Amino acid sequence: MRVAVLQHDPVVRQSIQQVLARAGHFCSAYEDGVAMSRSLCHSTMDLVMLDWHGKRLAGAELLRSVRQVAGERLPVMFVSSDASEERMVRALAEGADDYFALPLRAGEFCARVTALLRRAYPERFGTAASFDCGPYHFDLVRARVTLRGERVRLSPTQYRIAALFFSNVERVMSRDHIFAAVWGHEQPDLTRTVDSHVSRLRGLLEIEPRNGFLLQPVYRSGYRLLRFDEALARGSTGEMC
User: Fold this and answer.
1) H-type alpha helices, the chain
2) Which GO terms describe its cellular component (predicted)?
3) pLDDT per position as a tens digit, 56-90
4) How far is CA 46 from CA 40, 70, 135, 167, 173, in A?
5) Same domain as 204, residue 143
């Protein structure tokens, strides 16, 4: 999973990065809240970790900024040296999903991260062998997709992209997020690789109104799979951040 970490203390920031990397997560670290908020406009994350204290943005104001950019569904966890009950209560009351008081205890920290991600993305942690999305059926065991009962021949890469989109309907997926989730590593210099794969996949899966879905480009970010009626309600084919 992709995690954005804002932490003003460089030692703590590095420790968090190391713990998350050992747990198999991709981590983007920031020391400034404004820079992180700008980055979230173009690069999607699965979890955001915030420091209550900061240089330009901090506390509840920082949380509101993140929510405005990334939405209400994105899980947000505070990791702070301030262990006061008053601070924890305020953070949770303002909409944070968890609050971890330093020092960093790796075992507990990872357990909380996993629990938070499991609640936010149950489909990524579930044990189901398959799932249905409109006329599409995904066989998670054999990595196959059928459309109205007919198998769609996909390469392993195409299948992973399809499963990512259809298990995240309505959610914006940035190109770097797609690349990391599908190819298994970060891509510092984005190419047109993701775009060409998505374009081909749209045709193979016939993602179009008659099948109930649209794959919508999101300006300066990536793509979002929408149910057709919801796309009509939005009244656009893209959006700006």
Assistant:
1) 10-22, 33-40, 59-70, 85-93, 106-120, 122-125, 156-166, 175-183, 193-204, 228-234
2) cytosol; protein-DNA complex
3) 767 888 888 888 888 888 999 999 999 999 999 99
4) 11, 10, 27, 13, 10
5) yes
CATH of the domain at 85: 3.40.50.2300
Geometric angle at alpha carbon 130, from 129 and 134, rounded to 5°: 170
CB 153 within 8 A of CB 145: no
Which of 96, 123, 150 is the last residue before a domain boundary? 123
Q: Do residues 19 and 114 both lie within one domain?
A: yes
**Last residue within a domain, chosen from 70, 104, 123:** 123
Residues of the chain with pLDDT under 70: 55, 57, 126-127, 187-191, 230-241
The strand pairing partners of 78, in sequence order, are 50, 99
Strands 222-227 and 76-80: unpaired
Amino acid at 94: E
Provide the residue range defining the domain that includes 36: 2-123
Angle at 77 between CA 71 and CA 79, to 5 degrees: 140
Place of tokens 């924890």: 88
Domain-located, residue 102: yes
